[in-house]
Design brief:
The protein has 325 residues and is an alpha/beta fold. It folds into two domains: 147 residues, Quinone Oxidoreductase, Chain A, domain 1 (Alpha-Beta Complex), CATH 3.90.180; 139 residues, Medium-chain alcohol dehydrogenases, catalytic domain (Quinone Oxidoreductase, Chain A, domain 1, Alpha-Beta Complex), CATH 3.90.180.10. The protein is 26% helix and 29% strand. The strands form three sheets. Strands 3, 5, 6, 7, 8, 15 and 16 form a seven-stranded mixed β-sheet that branches. Strands 11-10-9-12-13-14 form a six-stranded parallel β-sheet, sandwiched between helices. A three-stranded antiparallel β-sheet has the order 2-1-4, with no helix packed on it. Helix 2 crosses helix 3. The longest helix is centred in the middle third of the chain and has 14 residues. The chain is globular and about 60 Å long.
Length: 325
């Protein structure tokens, strides 16, 4: 079978298409016939936690496809069933998936749409629901809203009835996100949005802030939080890893600060959130309250072109690699 590897050496990251044997599922695993796999920016960044050591390794983090083989100690899945989930080595014709991560694909979703779900929507679920406790009465601020997690956060917030303020440096992307429910669009990459946020919320501030940008906007987000507000740290594309914390605001407003990352979680810890995701969010994917945005789908042979399209940063929503010819 064909599978993509990425060879990392310093700042160099070379994609390689290799031929190899079809893997066999072990205990607790299923073999997936991959139909589509989603791209994620972090997996292509050298020095990222996914590539902490030099060398070549299979690449790809999420996939949608059909169950092609079932390992021992797996219940509740059937041969040929359409499933999606986080899946290491997903840029391949076949890949192994932890059966606990396998999620039945709603009938209305295409392969491309299903491949766009597992990573960003489960991160958004962790962020918005499990830790952010989003509610219908909330105002939500999403910095870097045109990112994958930003778009998913917008859609999850709207599915729960919240109102959303989003920042982005791309006016055209903000205009498109208005079509998906964005209430207030602020075209900026700078920490200069406090006054606009307070005006939109009647001076109360936001109940939940989502930081996809990094330390450069952290202090401004703290200023925007309402009493008992929550701030979720997701990413730092600005490469700014330090920020001042207003301890008086943290104390007086009874704020909650938390991070959302899977880097240090065990497979069991990651899988533990899947039943809640299926219960709380899968119905919205099934009944069209949430429809994954797929920017573009590339043929299997064009992963390098797909990577360049992502690095150009002109896309909105997910980029997908097709594996079914």
């Amino acid at each position: 079978m064909r599978t993509y590897w990425m060879d990392v050496d310093g700042d160099s990251a070379v994609l390689q298409l290799r031929e190899g044997p079809r893997p066999q599922p072990g205990a607790g695993q299923v073999l997936l016939r991959v139909r589509a796999a989603g791209l994620n920016r972090g997996e292509f960044i050298t020095g990222h936690g996914l590539h902490a050591k030099p060398g070549a390794r299979p690449i790809g983090l999420e996939a949608a496809g059909e169950v092609a083989a079932i390992g021992p100690d797996v219940a509740g899945l059937a041969m040929g069933q359409r499933v999606m989930g986080r899946c290491p080595g997903a840029f391949a014709e076949y890949a192994l998936m932890d059966a606990r991560e396998a999620i039945a694909i709603p009938d209305r979703l295409s392969w491309e749409q299903a491949a766009a779900v597992p990573v960003v929507y489960q991160v958004a679920y962790d962020l918005m629901v499990l830790h952010g406790r989003v509610a219908a009465s909330d105002w939500v601020l999403v910095n870097g809203i045109s990112s994958g997690v930003g778009v998913a956060s917008l859609q999850v917030a709207k599915a729960f009835g919240a109102r959303v303020i989003g920042t982005s440096g791309a006016a055209d992307k903000l205009a498109r996100l208005r079509e998906h429910g964005l209430d207030v669009a602020l075209c900026t990459r700078r920490p200069d949005f406090h006054d606009a946020v307070m005006q939109a919320t009647g001076g109360a501030g936001v109940n939940l802030a989502v930081n996809n940008v990094g330390g450069s906007v952290f202090a401004e987000e703290i200023r925007c939080l309402a009493f008992q507000g929550r701030l979720g740290m997701v990413g730092y594309v600005d490469r700014t890893l330090q920020a001042a914390i207003d301890l008086e605001a943290l104390h007086a407003k009874r704020l909650t600060l938390f991070g959302v990352s899977n880097k240090m979680r065990t497979p069991a810890q990651r899988a533990a959130d899947v039943p809640g995701f299926v219960r709380d969010l899968l119905p919205a994917l099934a009944d069209s309250r949430i429809t994954p945005i797929v920017d573009r789908a590339f043929p299997f042979e064009q992963l390098e072109e797909a990577r360049r399209h992502m690095q150009a940063d002109r896309h909105l929503g997910k980029i997908v690699l097709l594996a079914d010819g």
